[in-house]
Design a protein that fits this description.
The complex is a heterodimer of chains A (611) and B (263). Chain A has 611 residues and is α+β, with helices and mostly antiparallel strands. Chain A is built from 10 helices and 31 strands. In chain A, the strands form 8 sheets. In chain A, strands 22, 24, 25, 26, 27, 29 and 30 form a 7-stranded mixed beta sheet that branches. Chain A is elongated and about 175 Å long. Chain B has 263 residues and is of the alpha+beta class. In chain B, strand 5 and strand 6 form a beta hairpin. The chains are: A alpha+beta (611), B alpha+beta (263).
């Protein structure tokens, strides 16, 4: 259970480190503890990013606490690792503290890509001078006071001093010694103008070799071997190489008495002391010649060396929108690291992307040797036959002293119709599809140019548009109320009163029946039923017949038995009214019940239907 | 319900008034027939003189003209002139006028395919996505028209409810009234929100080739990531020289204000 937690912690720690690859402006010192009177170096470094975007290095005020002995000296470094270019530029000062204590090396600032970057500060502790004497008695001496003569020196030995532009030369830095010494770290390469440099050897363990130079025997140590590729023509100088040493020398006592000195010139009594000595090489002057004019190919881009080219296409039968890889490899000797991608004319209808570059170079036999390959991803868009024309690469062959041009064969691809399915897919695929398209055409001028739309609706218009419906609503309601008042709701009124009227008439007819007034009874019961039906169903008197009433009831979808009951009641009333035969007392009472039940049934059915 | 409605209407009214004032401040002087000048720019474009087309059209914009056509053509001309950032800026502006115009949408994709940033949009809950898509698919004007139509339906429903005694009719009117009333409020909210959004110019396009986005609003902050020309970003917060932005894939950080042009 614990591992995930550690994993997360690790991730949290690593993520900032990954981001740290970006542009940084830092301040560093070669040591944080300096004895008073000794030198130390302060370096401000801008690393990562594009060095062309930097400008305006603003030097800090170093002289408040320190004495500036030298600087600023600038140096640039460009490195390509796995096809990724990283570069840095630094400004170096050599400082000497003025007094003991803890001091802060102030921050410098620089403009990068329009932004002001400020470096960190570093604090330096200045201690009291430490005597480095073997016996603790002798004092350290200033560098210049002891003359070591030709007992200890370094030389820069160039392999050649007259080269073509781009032709490498090797410089070997060698130390010659006849005394015991110690090297101080670190060895710094001099700054270079007009050269691209590449370390060939920088041994960590120095191995002595015996060599005779100018008639004396020395122990020699190879300190560094560096390849320089000149990048400009003319008389160039490789600046002196500097190395700090500590030498142990025997100190003569200066008594003024020659005899005494000679007498006591005894190893046991002599004092040894360590002195610091900075060794410098001589400057190396190199004459860099322009490459010959005659026979220079048109596409020559300044590559010098000896190369072979290999170009391969991984497949030549494919469908539209599938990918093929074109790989161009340059192999040979010369400044591999500065090789640019070859110029390739890609045919129309084939999308291609920036190449993936891989490089492998090592110093060998006075030059860089290795290969650089460029991988292009090609995406043909349409079916058909497309041809990548031959790729050419020109360089100046140093060995033969003439230009040479390499040419690959042409590559032909047969593109079949692509799958429709292949086109749909990721965001990336959509981007790729649109890479092959152009924008739609420009549009004609309008009749009248408009001011930019404020996108809002003008206030009066907005209020009007929102008020209109309410005004319309108010108007409509007023009209409706007036209409209702004038016309009245006769039908509604009758409907609501129908039950009461029917009840009253039924009661009356009952009275007539009990009193034996047969004519009046039949009339009243017919009025009760017909009036009720007409009012309740809102039917005008003129168009009411048994058929229309039944039809109306059927429309209302009342229960069938109710409709049947109503029909029988209506028929009964009509029959009794117009028949010549006299009905019995029982028959008359039965008719009354039938009419009453029909009215109650309809009343209940209508009420039930409403709710 | 009615009170809420009045409040929203008032709010909308304020926004519109503000918009009118700013629009009114822009002088519209008739120098040359602007329409003829526009047509000249179109001729320049057809003759592949994109620089001339751009300067004519930009001149028109400076004189206070705008609209879909102007920005559409500017977007095309900048693209042809190789200025992808400006091209996207103007195509996005054209899109404000006609959010679903197929020509603008097509051209935007064409130009975007040539920019360097490729962002996978952050997955959102489906209804958030729907809401965002619905909201940005129409101009405020469309939402306003919809709200007016809904208000008429609402008024009709109120008339039926108050004017008739028939219980069935009245119930139907009440149901429809509530339904359309809710839709009406929604449309008014959409209208004012969209208007707010447009007038606040919360979106911007990155102009320089490459710009560093930092974790804090100052030049020495830790670099979070880099953005490239033509990327559309959402401005979350503004602090004098620095804006806090959010990308489509959800990343946020502070960027120099001068690196952005607001849409």
């Amino acid at each position: 259970m614990r591992t995930p937690v550690y994993g997360i912690i690790l991730l949290v720690l690593i993520v900032p480190l990954l981001n740290a690859q970006e542009v940084q402006f830092t301040c560093s010192v070669d040591r944080t503890e300096v004895p008073v009177g000794e030198k130390f170096q302060v370096t401000y470094t801008l690393s990562g990013g594009n060095l062309r975007s930097q400008s305006d290095f603003n030097a800090p005020d170093l002289n408040r606490n320190f004495l500036t002995l030298a600087g600023p000296s600038t140096s640039q470094q460009v490195r390509i690792i796995n096809g990724r270019m990283s570069s840095s530029i630094s400004w170096t000062y050599v400082l000497q503290p003025r007094s003991t204590g803890t001091f802060t090396v102030p921050s410098a600032s620089i403009t990068y890509d329009g932004e002001r970057l400020t470096s960190n500060t570093v604090s330096v502790r200045v201690t009291r001078a430490v005597p480095q004497s073997q016996q603790g008695r002798s004092r350290q001496q200033e560098t210049g006071k002891v003359d070591l003569g030709d007992n200890l020196f370094i030389r820069a030995i160039p392999s050649d001093t007259d080269v073509y532009l781009g032709e490498p030369l090797t410089v070997t830095y060698k130390l010659y010694s006849r005394v015991a010494f110690q090297l101080e770290n670190p060895i710094k390469l001099p700054r270079m103008v007009g050269f691209w440099s590449e370390d060939v050897e920088s041994p960590t363990q120095l191995r002595p070799r015996v060599e005779v130079y100018n008639g004396k025997q020395y122990e020699t140590y190879m300190l560094r071997k560096v390849l320089y590729f000149p990048t400009q023509t003319g008389e160039l100088t490789i600046e002196p190489f500097e190395v700090g040493t500590t030498v142990r020398v025997r100190k003569r006592r200066k008594t003024g008495d020659d005899f005494y000195d000679r007498f006591f010139s005894d190893p046991f009594l002599d004092r040894y002391e360590s002195i610091k000595k900075t060794l410098l090489t001589q400057k190396v002057r190199v004459n860099v010649r322009e490459l010959p004019e005659n026979g220079r190919p048109n596409d020559f881009s300044g590559v010098v060396g000896d190369y072979e080219m290999e170009a391969t296409l991984d497949r030549n039968q494919l469908k539209a929108n599938e990918t093929a890889t074109l790989k161009v490899t340059l192999r040979g000797s010369g400044n591999i690291r500065l090789l640019d991608e070859p110029e390739i004319t890609f045919p129309a209808g084939v999308d291609h992307y920036d190449p993936t570059i891989s490089e492998d170079a090592r110093p060998e036999a006075g030059t860089l040797y290795g290969s650089k390959s460029f991988e292009y991803i090609l995406v043909p868009r349409y079916a058909g036959k497309v041809t990548v024309p031959p790729i050419t690469f020109s360089y100046f062959n140093l060995e033969r002293g003439e230009y040479e041009t390499l040419e690959s064969p042409a590559f032909t691809m047969n593109i079949a119709e692509g799958d429709a399915r292949q086109r749909a897919g990721t965001v990336e695929q959509e981007y790729i599809d649109y890479l092959a398209m152009d924008v739609r055409p420009v549009k004609e001028a309008p009749e009248e140019m408009e001011p930019p739309d404020p996108f809002g609706i003008p206030l009066p218009m907005l209020i009007l548009m929102y008020l209109f419906p309410f005004v319309a609503f108010a108007g409509a309601i007023t009209w409706k109320q007036r209409y209702d008042r004038i016309h009245g709701d006769v039908a509604g009124l009758k409907r609501r009163r129908a039950t009461r009227v029917a009840e009253k008439r039924l009661r009356n007819s009952r009275g007539f029946l009990d009193a034996g007034d047969i004519e009046a009874y039949y009339l009243e019961i017919a009025r009760a039923l017909w009036g009720y039906v007409q009012d309740k169903l809102s039917m005008p008197t003129s168009s009411t017949t048994i058929a229309t009433v039944i039809e109306r009831l059927e429309q209302l979808a009342l229960p069938v038995d109710l409709t049947e009951q109503m029909k029988r009641a209506l028929e009964g009333v009509e029959f009794a009214r117009f028949s010549s035969t006299r009905a019995s007392e029982d028959e008359m009472r039965a008719l009354y019940d039938m009419v009453r039940d029909a009215i109650i049934g309809l009343e209940e059915a209508m009420r039930g239907g409403k709710t | 319900m009615k009170r809420l409605m009045t409040l929203t209407v008032l709010r909308v009214a304020c926004i519109v008034a503000a918009a009118l004032m700013t629009a009114g401040g822009m002088p519209l002087r008739a120098q040359e027939n602007p329409s003829a000048e526009f047509q000249r720019a179109v001729e320049h474009y057809r003759a592949a003189e994109y620089g001339d087309a751009i300067s004519l059209l930009m001149n028109l914009e400076r004189r206070g003209y705008g609209g879909y056509l102007l920005h559409y053509n500017l977007g095309n001309a900048y693209y042809k002139n190789g200025e992808l950032g400006r091209s996207i800026l103007h195509l996005e502006k054209a899109l404000l006028y006609r959010p679903q115009d197929p020509d603008v949408l097509h051209n935007l994709k064409v130009v975007r395919a040539r920019t360097r940033d490729r962002l996978e949009p952050v997955p959102l809950l489906f209804f958030v996505r729907w809401w965002n898509e619905f909201r940005t698919a129409y101009t405020p004007g469309t939402f306003f028209i919809v709200s007016v139509v809904l208000l008429w339906i609402l008024a009709a429903a109120l008339f039926v409810f108050f004017g008739f005694r028939n219980i069935v009719l009245r119930r139907l009117a009440m149901g429809l009234g509530i339904f359309f009333g809710v839709l009406f409020i929604l449309s008014v909210v959409l209208y004012s929100a969209r208007l707010d959004e447009l007038n606040a110019h919360r979106y911007a396009v990155v102009m320089p080739d490459e710009t560093v986005v930092r974790s804090t609003p100052d030049a020495s902050g830790i670099e979070s990531f880099k953005v490239h020309e033509g990327l559309k970003v959402h401005i979350m917060e503004m602090r004098d020289a620095f804006y806090r932005i959010r990308l489509a894939d959800g990343k946020t950080g502070w960027i120099r204000a001068s690196a952005l042009e607001r849409i």
